[in-house]
Amino acid sequence: MNIPTKGTPSTEPQLCAWVESMATLCQPDAIHWVDGSEEENKSLCDLLVEKGTFTRLNPEKRPNSFLARSKPSDVARVEDRTYICSKREGDAGPTNNWADPSEMKVKLHGKFSGCMKGRTMYVIPFCMGPLDSPLAKIGYEISDSAYVVVNMRIMCHMGDKVSKRYEAEAAGTAPKGRDGYGHFIPCLHSVGVPLEPGQEDDTWPCSDDKYICHFPETREIWSFGSGYGGNALLGKKCLALRIASCIAREHNWMAEHMLILGLEAPTGEKTYVTAAFPSACGKTNLAMLVPPKSYQGWKTTIIGDDIAWLWPHEDGKLHAINPETGYFGVAPGTSYDTNPIAMDSMTENAIFTNVALTDDGDVWWEGMTKEAPAHLIDWKGNDWTPESETPSAHPNARFTAPAEQCPTIDPEWQNPDGVPIDAIVFGGRRPSTMPLVYQAFNWSHGVYVGATMGSEVTAAAIGLKAGVRRDPMAMLPFCGYNMGDYLAHWYDMRRHIKHLPRFFHVNWFRLDNEGDFLWPGFGENMRVLEWIVKRCNGQVAGHETTIGWTPHFEDFNTDELKGFTEEQFDKGMAYNPAEWRAEIISQGELFMNLYDSLPKEMVYQKELFAGRLS
């Protein structure tokens, strides 16, 4: 093909053939092979500023940082346009949107035909996970969005170092050991807005017709129409969870929507935990937790805030890596009061999307400070004051920041061998029923606890049916195959792990009769984590109850926790048989929805629980 090319094209035949076929389909005006260099990044950011996609922030307040504003129609994941294109509908399961792969490919070829006219096709080599990790996944994303390129550079290993590794593997000269050695995952993305000669471009081009499609058998990802977040940064949810979960099931490991947190006791003993929470339950805040002042000598460190890949290590434990190298966090509600570590992580080299712009060239969002500035430019580009009827930042506004800038980043965060996991924590937003913390009896019971967790919603607040919205392991939107088979894989994994981690459930959101939180949360959650660590290390006894092991008040650290009495502790830990009977009944919808593929152990655990309640 005679298309102007920038950068150094690969010489690997399989990759070159794929890129050429995609260029033939999409018909770009130019091809840019991305090298990931600082010079290239600066050039692309300058280009985005020139186009109006980026606003350069005040370099004295926010060095090398930018603000982007998307179209109001392109602000979040589009779950109703996200498809699992497996050969059999049953392999996608009842919780995913399924499409026949052959039919979807025909449809997508029609959408992508000529979609990059007038644009540059970027070829982005990237790797999820440390390059030397046995789980590392190399992919190539083709995109017509420079915004995607500069965000991917923050979120994963990207550029020449990845290209060289892939080419060495394809030639057979690189050390073997990586799952997927010599292969790459092809990812195609377009905003879906071709340009005619002389046509002026939009600052945020995107099509109203969106498709985010995953092909588990061929390990392909095709995304059309959206330039936002996980719809466009295809290494994140698309590869690291939906496709990776399918690969993990076949190769006896796990791709999970989990944070990874390190907890170091004053003795120097280090314990690593993973935790899965549905959205709006404080996952990032917990990953970046700062211990209260009374916890002298304790340290917390972060491996990752969003995704964990776990596998049975040769030492007999479950090990975990974070496949990402950056944070793509929700900005509204983040502040120096709620999450100072996140705030410190985005002081420079950051990209902000759909937040407000201050008059002095910085960013602001709801919850960032107690008082709002007198004047802002809101996320739609309009003047805003505290009297305005709409928020200044979109509720799903995001920051993209390098993980290496995090003050509490763990020294082992890029260890290809991962870190050993001693505890797996689940939790949802529950105003009643669920205690502050309890420990599952064993692996089988723990999987049941994780599978049935969820958050209570009201129809008025969220537009969903009132009740508990179940979100097994917080993976409902991200599992790339049948959720029933996914739970069966969890049960199967215990056969491959010699030293099993302990399972726990937490609930920071229980309310008293007046509607006030019974637990202060945030940094005080360290007290719950301390009990979890001590349980894992056999340093404290638990109280066996109907639902699991719970802490005795005298074994739970309340030093300097002002106003928190044993009575409050008892309320936060209260067990109400009637509420738990209702809990079992409300789980029925999940069980029925997954009935055809639900593992028998789930039913067995439910029956055991019902028997303990009677």
In one word, what is the shape? globular
User: Which structural class matches the secondary elements?
Assistant: alpha/beta
Share of residues in strands = 15-25%
Find the count of extended strands (DSSP E, 2+ residues). Answer: 33
The oligomeric state is single chain
Give the count of helical stretches: 18
The helicity comes to 25-40%
**Mean pLDDT, all residues:** 96
Rg = 24 Å
Query: Which spans have pLDDT < 50 for at least 5 consecutive residues?
Result: 459-463
Gap between N and C termini = 73 Å
Largest sheet: 10 strands, mixed
Please describe the topology of this protein:
Blueprint: E1 5-6, H1 13-26, E2 30-33, H2 38-51, E3 54-56, E4 66-68, E5 82-84, H3 89-92, E6 97-98, H4 101-112, E7 120-128, E8 137-143, H5 146-155, E9 157-158, H6 160-171, E10 185-190, E11 211-215, E12 220-224, H7 229-232, H8 235-250, E13 254-256, E14 259-264, E15 270-276, H9 283-287, E16 299-304, E17 308-312, E18 318-321, E19 326-330, H10 340-345, E20 351-353, E21 356-358, E22 363-364, E23 376-377, E24 383-384, E25 398-402, E26 419-421, E27 423-427, E28 437-439, H11 443-451, E29 454-457, H12 459-462, E30 467-470, H13 483-493, E31 502-506, H14 525-536, E32 543-544, E33 549-550, H15 566-572, H16 577-586, H17 588-593, H18 600-613
Parallel strand pairs: 1-2, 2-7, 4-20, 5-6, 5-11, 8-10, 10-12, 15-27, 27-31
Antiparallel strand pairs: 3-4, 7-8, 7-9, 11-12, 13-17, 14-15, 14-16, 17-18, 18-26, 19-25, 20-25, 21-22, 21-23, 23-24, 28-31, 29-30, 32-33
Helix pairs in contact: 2-5, 11-18, 16-18
